[in-house]
Amino acid sequence: MPLDFTAIDFETANSSSASACAVGLARVRGGQVVATAGWLIRPPAGHDRFFELNVQIHGIHPEDVLDAPTWSDQLDDFAAFAGADVLVAHNAGFDMAVLRRACEATGDVCPPYRYFCSLQLARKAYDLPSYRLPSAAAAAGFTDFAHHDAAADALACAHIVIDAATRCRADDIDALARTHALRVKTIDPAVPVQEPVFAVA
Q1: Considering just the CA atoms, what is the radius of gyration of the chain in Å?
Q2: pTM of the model as a whole
Q3: Which of 3, 51, 130, 165 is the most exposed place for a label (fewest CB within 10 A)?
Q4: What is the pLDDT of residue 192?
Q5: What is the largest CA-CA distance in the chain?
Q6: Residue 43: CA atoms inside 13 Å, Cβ hemisphere, count?
């Protein structure tokens, strides 16, 4: 099987993982990035307050999302881009919690995506003083990107996975996971979500 996946990154308005305010996506086919996308999201009602800390990190303000699609409105576009791909994210537990919690907040069905964490992968594949996204991406040869821009972060994540797979000659995500003694997990709606603290990856 080829190295096919979709890298994702969410930004949130506050400490609630349901408060998605932006998403970035990068589609990989055969170990090459073939498409990217990103858009703003109006966070679900009750999770739409913007904390100053979050705004300082990603630069998205409440007025920026006034005319943005709601979580429910954009979910079809997200699903159309990702298809049946394995989702890959840097600190994937955070991004999968966003998917789960935002769907719960809006009453939408969260598809049972398979997912893989590039942060865990970087810790196995590289020897670095820090495994935050900029450091891991630099180790993969991807530098000078706008960290905390969701689309740029998704692209950086994709390059980490591509580089790690190239180094160990893994043909697909499952082989890459096995080579580094990691797991490709599945979102399970029956398992309660633990609310993560806002993550700076």
Answers
A1: 16
A2: 0.93
A3: 130
A4: 60
A5: 46
A6: 25
The conformation of residue 49, written as its DSSP 8-state character, comes to: P
Asked if 118 and 89 touch (Cβ cutoff 8 Å), the reply is yes
The residue ranges of every structural domain in the chain are 5-186
Structure tokens at 9: 């990154």
Phi, psi values for residue 24, rounded to 5°: -125, 145
Residue 45 amino acid letter: A
Secondary-structure class of domain 5-186 per CATH: alpha beta
- Specify the residue for token string 């993550």: 199
Distance between CA 138 and CA 191 in Å, rounded? 35
42-52 pLDDT, tens digit per residue, is 999 999 999 99
Chain-centroid distance, C-alpha 165: 18
